[in-house]
Amino acid sequence: MKTWTLRIGAVLAIALALGMLWLKLVHGGGSAYPSVATPALTPASSLQTVATLDFPPGNVAVAADGRTFMNYHPFAKAERFGPTMFEVVNGKPVPWPSLEAQKDWQGVFGMTVDRQNRLWLIEPAGLDHARTRLTAWSLASNAKVYEHWFDKGVLPFAQDLRITADGRRVILADTGLFKFTRPAIAVFEPESGRLLLRLEQHPSTQAQDWTIRTPLGPHKLGYGLVNFAVGVDGIALSDDDQWLYFGGMSHQHLYRVPLAALSNPEFDEAALGQLVEDQGVKPLSDGITIDSRGRVILTDIEHGGLVRRRDDGQLETLVSDPQVVWADGVVQAPDGALLFTDSAIPAYIDQFARPPSLERLVAHRPYRLLRLPAISIQ
């Protein structure tokens, strides 16, 4: 009996070792990314702190009248300790739409304000929820005016969204789970419920094998077994809704695709793929926005700042701050300033994606919502 126990133990140990070796070989690679940063146009001292936070922020959205909204990053699981959705009022995060409503959130990722003055939020199913939820809230009343639960398994990692000018189409980016599931761009029509999943097989949406380097070191999970390689993440619509710009977090290039074709089911994947336009190199990025002059702004994760794509296609670093651990969501305010979050992901994320302890989160306080004034970046 003892001999059989030893044999079974040996077989299990070998199987575990082989499994870990496979995981390392398939998902644990990653090369250092060649820097595309340029000398910053403005010093890090130009950055202003909009709000000092107890927990790491995820995304930020600004309405036409300047009202500013943000959330705590779902990776931090801050709902264990209090509110997670806020309006920033006089530099203070105020639970939004109310303190009582906080129990309703399952982890907001992407957020954006449309031209109908509605705040749209996407809450992906991710690792620990059954279904992904999309909601819209009237900012005139702070009341929920739309809700849709996607079917189980649909858009489980939807983390960014944009709304067309007429408010009738929602564009979503599903990053995929590293290389385990395929990323996709989705077009959803709230009125009809029609959903199109697009570019699931196209190279532009897939993660490349780069290792993200941060002030806290290379960012991997499972003690190096899984590279933090993420597919299509940030998306932005041109002001005229003609183009959707997009980029993978772990991808070397920025792309755009005609929205009309993306939204038209008569364009099959092959035909749509032919219309994807390469816009040149970019940093390893998270959030994307387009400024009032039509220039694409991207967060630069590795250099703690913001990068702008000029009209001639060249990149220029707007600001770089070594104290920023992970430049995440970005948006332009009505006064032209750029607001972005430092979600500080590597400071607290667990190696096995478990909720971080309160002690670990507290150890890296304070967290910040940042502002780069317009006068610094004309």
Structural overview:
- A hairpin with a 5-residue loop joins strand 24 (288-290) and strand 25.
- 11% of the residues lie in helices and 37% in strands.
- The chain has 378 residues and is mostly beta strands.
- The strands form nine sheets. A four-stranded antiparallel beta sheet has the order 2-30-29-28, with no helix packed on it. Strands 3-4-5-6 form a four-stranded antiparallel beta sheet, with no helix packed on it.
- It is built from four helices and 30 strands.
- The protein folds into two domains: 1-32; 33-376, Neuraminidase, CATH 2.120.10.
- The chain is globular.
- The protein has helices at 2-27, 259-262, 269-275, 358-363, and strands at residues 31-32, 48-53, 57-62, 68-72, 85-89, 92-95, 111-113, 118-123, 133-138, 143-149, 158-163, 170-174, 184-188, 195-198, 210-211, 213-214, 217-218, 220-221, 226-227, 232-237, 243-248, 253-258, 277-281, 288-290, 296-300, 305-309, 315-320, 327-332, 338-342, 367-372.
